[in-house]
Write a structure and sequence with these properties.
This protein is mainly α and about 300 residues long. The chain is built from 13 helices and 7 strands. It has helices at about 5-25, 35-40, 45-55, 60, 100-110, 125-130, 135-145, 165-175, 190-200, 205-210, 250-255, 270-275, 280-304; strands at about 75-80, 80-85, 155-160, 225-230, 230-235, 260, 265. It has a 3-stranded antiparallel sheet with strand order 1-2-3, with no helix packed on it. It has a two-stranded antiparallel sheet with strand order 4-5. A hairpin with a 2-residue loop joins β1 and β2 (about 80-85). α3 packs across α7. The termini are far apart.
């Protein structure tokens, strides 16, 4: 093969790869709606959505220092640069006021915004994809019930090529697994509820699981410890229930208050998590504690 032909072949392959990449990344825009069309005044939907937002720690991630709640702008440091959290208030221009429930569901499940742009996985849709339609509807209703705040979020500060959004589609092929979490019939209802919340909207693995060089969670080291905003997130392994002697009751108290007399106070990002869990259903908090206590033992058994 001549050098010219080899170069032409390489160029053709490169163009094909780019075209396939764009095909995978392209998503159509979803028709915008008026804010009034999204208003849901049913407290039976909004109130559960508020609790789910607390479990997901949504306010802390999407609120800048001293800024309006849910209005975005908080810098999220990553190994690839800084991402600024989006505005989740129902402002039509700078928030999600023009988003239908369908558009919101796509963002939660597929990591694609209303306009069709790929969302960076700093927004943990790799966990949110497990949320049920009913819970997504409740969360949407709650956010749309909040006051609309006009807040233009700063542009992300990412290094090349990470500032090129279509490459996120490739990341999803590797790390986004769209699957419902079917209940385990061999486990209690409380354990199954805890699993759904921890693995889904609670996205605990986002902080407590180490990540690879591409930013994906190392599933073979699930809950073996990670990092969050410059803090070390401890491993949720057997040391919780053995060396540190955590019980389900103690975990539930700690998670909902940020304090337990035998284990001390939550600090760093965990303090924010506990503050929000204090607003959630205590049955849900206990379910989370039940699941964490069990997976701690499972992680230890698997690794030993």
């Amino acid at each position: 093969m001549t050098l010219r032909r080899a170069l032409l072949t390489a160029a053709a392959v490169g163009i094909l790869v780019v075209l396939v990449g764009f095909a995978l990344a392209w998503r159509p825009a979803i028709t915008p709606i008026t804010v009034n069309a999204a208003v849901n005044t049913d407290r039976k939907t909004i109130d559960p959505g508020a609790e789910l937002a607390a479990i997901g720690n949504c306010a802390d991630c999407h609120t800048a220092a001293n800024g309006p709640a849910y209005a975005g702008g908080r810098p999220v440091p990553t190994p690839f640069g800084t991402i600024y959290a989006s505005n989740l208030t129902p402002d039509a221009e700078t928030g999600i006021g023009s988003w239908s429930e369908e558009a919101f569901k796509r963002a939660m499940r597929d990591g694609v915004d209303r306009a069709g742009r790929q969302l960076y996985p700093a927004f943990p849709y790799d966990h949110f994809t497990h949320a049920t339609d009913g819970d997504i509807r409740a969360l949407y209703a709650f956010l749309m019930s909040k006051p609309a705040v006009r807040n233009v979020v700063p542009a992300n500060e990412l290094d090349f090529p990470f500032n090129f959004r279509p490459i996120v589609a490739g990341w999803k092929l590797l790390f986004l697994h769209r699957a419902a979490l079917d209940p385990d019939p061999n486990k209690s209802a409380e354990w199954n509820r805890g699993r759904y919340l921890v693995e889904g909207l609670g996205h605990c693995g986002s902080c407590h699981t180490p990540r690879n060089v591409l930013g994906g969670e190392k599933k073979d080291s699930a809950y073996a410890g990670g990092a969050a905003e410059g803090w070390n997130a401890p491993a949720l392994n057997a040391s919780l229930v053995t060396a540190h002697k955590w019980t389900v009751d103690q975990l539930a108290e700690y998670l909902s208050t940020g304090w337990h007399k035998l284990h001390g106070a939550a600090a760093g990002p965990m303090a924010d998590v506990a503050k929000n869990l204090g607003r959630a259903s205590q049955d849900d908090v206990r379910a989370i504690a039940t699941y964490i206590a069990v997976i701690a033992v499972i992680v230890w058994v698997v690794k030993n």
